Automatic annotation (TrEMBL):
Residues 361-485 form the UDP-glucose/GDP-mannose dehydrogenase C-terminal domain. Its EC number is 1.1.1.22. One of its GO terms (cellular component) is nucleus. This is UDP-glucose 6-dehydrogenase. InterPro entries: 6-PGluconate_DH-like_C_sf, NAD(P)-bd_dom_sf, UDP-Glc/GDP-Man, UDP-Glc/GDP-Man_DH_C, UDP-Glc/GDP-Man_DH_C_sf, UDP-Glc/GDP-Man_DH_dimer, UDP-Glc/GDP-Man_DH_N, UDPglc_DH_euk. The active site is at residue 305.
Length: 513
């Protein structure tokens, strides 16, 4: 189907010439009467994705709706609810013109021709599949609401990452309540990465659209493809069946995470043998069949999706009676957990087997640079591990607030992935954790530093000054390989860098207790 649809599209596209031509309305095939898009869920995906659609499609009205009043207020203010390079500019250009943010979910859904659903799909914490399966509560309530308020035919687009065959369930909910209205379900998973969301959206490797292989399904695919064709080259818009699109998203995240766990597994072996993981990754990545991306060893991957989506994949494999495949993917998570534990153990064992009462400066808390997002950040597990050994933490991250860090450190696993106002409250702040607003305050009088996010500013700190103000011996544990270890050693630091040849000090210390 994919080739057939793409060939047909390319052929017709050539006939009409260009997107400008399409925009001018000369080709009604592409621009049907569709004028309004609504997106349910104004989060990290819904907000930026819709802002870019609005930017690139001035002829389309885009409304982003959410049940969280605080989020919508922030989208309508000068301080957007998420930090993402380039996002402010795009939103400012379109907001008030063809882009709006609203809590009036039902009104905008009722008025729209295409409804994207980009709500949370957390890991279940209770009942069947707890700890693995996706909790589709929010998706299901969105689908029921669409069915309730719709008065005209709609294309409903899965933007959230969902288990394979979710579209079937959604179709049942919609058609069961349809009052004669036609709903076409599409899967259009999002591949943006945080920190680069705007450039990923403006210039995607591919856009994937899955739909039913029926005449209505193909029409719906075309309508959505027309939207993306405003700025995405047509050979990058892939069309598949629904199940392939749903599974491709889980597969892509699993493959990406697997590369990180592979290089992190190698980092442990490098430390044991004297090899250097950066050199190994460089040599391996030079093979064009492997490629250089996603081979940076780290303290572990974080983010809202890798773990969640792999657990989801594992659950689907188990439900389909293929435990060997489930075990294969589970190992990606296990290695990631091992990497975080190994890092904590390295710190404790290096510092005379105890960090009790010692001040440890934590530089970076976000799950990667250029975002304030802390969902599943490896910093949570590392900090909890150090707190478990009674360390006193002084944390600095340029984009993460004290309130967020305290919430993260006191929240239960998986509880973060719910709309903010429905998250379990985390009333008590974690003792022995202070959050400060610069790296020099964090490191003053510290016994050790650990770098957990690769913020650029950590490369260029005045490490001589930091060393002078620290307790001795002064330790640096670089979980992101951002500092120049040789330079720091010359200053006097004992340096541990992930997957690099070890200082003599660290050589005989057990990496994992
Ligand atoms: P998010 O938590 O930032 O946003 C989800 C939003 O949906 C929240 O603001 C919440 O209030 C709202 N919501 C929940 N139920 C609702 C309802 N019934 N009606 C209206 N609003 C509702 O989550 P996100 O990071 O944007 O992720 C959304 C989906 O996209 C997830 O399935 C995720 O796996 C997937 N995804 C995320 C990323 C990413 O980089 N964050 C990338 C690709 C895919
Ligand atoms: C990831 C994917 O890259 C996106 O394609 C996908 O859409 C998204 O998940 C999703 O589904 O949510 P994201 O989590 O935003 O995007 O960020 P990544 O750049 O993938 O980083 C994920 C984690 O892996 C971070 O903690 C990062 O520091 C870590 N990482 C990444 C490494 O440790 N090493 C690397 O080489 C690359």
């Amino acid at each position: 189907m994919q080739n057939h649809l793409n060939d047909e599209f390319v052929f017709r596209y050539k006939l009409v010439g260009s997107v400008e031509h399409i925009k001018s309305g000369k080709d009604q095939l592409f621009l049907s009467k569709m004028v309004k898009i609504c997106c349910i869920g104004a989060g990290y995906v819904g907000g930026p994705t819709m802002a870019v659609i609005a930017l690139k499609c001035p002829n389309i009205q885009v409304a982003v709706v959410d049940i969280s009043t605080a989020r919508i207020n922030a989208w309508n203010s000068d301080t957007l609810p998420i930090y993402e390079p380039g996002l402010d500019e795009v939103v400012k250009k379109c907001r008030g013109k063809n882009l709006s943010f609203s809590t009036d979910v039902e009104k905008h859904v009722a008025e729209s021709d295409i409804v994207f659903v980009s709500v949370n799909t957390p890991t279940k914490t209770q009942g069947l599949g707890a700890g693995k399966a996706a909790d589709l509560t929010y998706w299901e309530s969105a689908a029921r609401m669409i069915a309730d308020v719709a008065k005209s035919n709609k294309i409903v687009v899965e933007k959230s990452t969902v288990p394979v065959k979710t579209a079937e369930a959604i179709e049942k909910i919609l058609t069961h309540n349809s009052k004669g209205i036609n709903f076409s379900i599409l899967s259009n998973p999002e591949f943006l990465a945080e920190g680069t969301a705007i450039s990923d959206l403006l210039n995607p490797d591919r856009v994937l659209i899955g739909g039913r292989e029926t005449p209505e399904g193909k029409k719906a695919i075309e309508a959505l493809r027309d939207v993306y064709a405003h700025w995405v080259p047509v050979d990058r818009i892939l069309c598949t069946n629904l199940w392939s699109a749903e599974l491709s998203k889980l597969a892509a995240n699993a493959f990406l995470a697997q590369r990180i766990s592979s290089v992190n597994a190698m980092s442990a072996l490098c430390e044991a043998t004297g090899a250097d993981v950066s050199q190994v990754a460089h040599a391996v990545g030079k093979d064009t069949r492997i490629g250089p991306k996603f081979l940076n060893a780290s303290v572990g991957f974080g983010g809202s999706c890798f773990q969640k989506d792999i657990l989801n994949l594992v659950y689907i494999c188990e439900c389909n009676g293929i435990p060997e495949v489930a075990t294969y993917w589970k190992q990606v998570i296990k290695v990631n957990d091992y990497q975080k534990t190994r890092f904590v153990n390295r710190i404790v064992s290096s510092m005379f087997n105890t960090v009790s009462g010692k001040k440890i400066a934590v530089l970076g808390f976000a799950f990667k640079k250029d975002t304030g997002d802390t969902r599943e950040t490896p910093a949570i597990d590392v900090c909890k591990g150090l707190i478990g050994d009674k360390a006193k933490l002084s944390i600095y991250d340029p984009q993460v607030s004290q309130d967020q860090i305290q919430r993260d450190l006191s929240m239960k696993k998986f509880d973060w992935d719910h709309p903010v106002h429905l998250q379990p409250m985390s009333p008590t702040s974690v003792k022995d954790v202070s959050v400060v607003w610069d790296a020099y305050t964090a490191t003053k009088d510290a016994h050790g530093i650990c770098i957990l996010t690769e913020w650029d500013e950590f490369k260029n700190l005045d490490y001589q000054k930091i060393f002078n103000d620290m307790q001795k011996p002064a330790f640096m544990f670089d979980g992101r390989n951002v500092v120049d270890a040789e330079k720091l050693r010359k200053i006097g630091f004992i340096v541990y860098s992930i997957g690099k040849p070890l200082d003599d000090w660290l050589k005989d210390m057990p990496a994992v207790a």
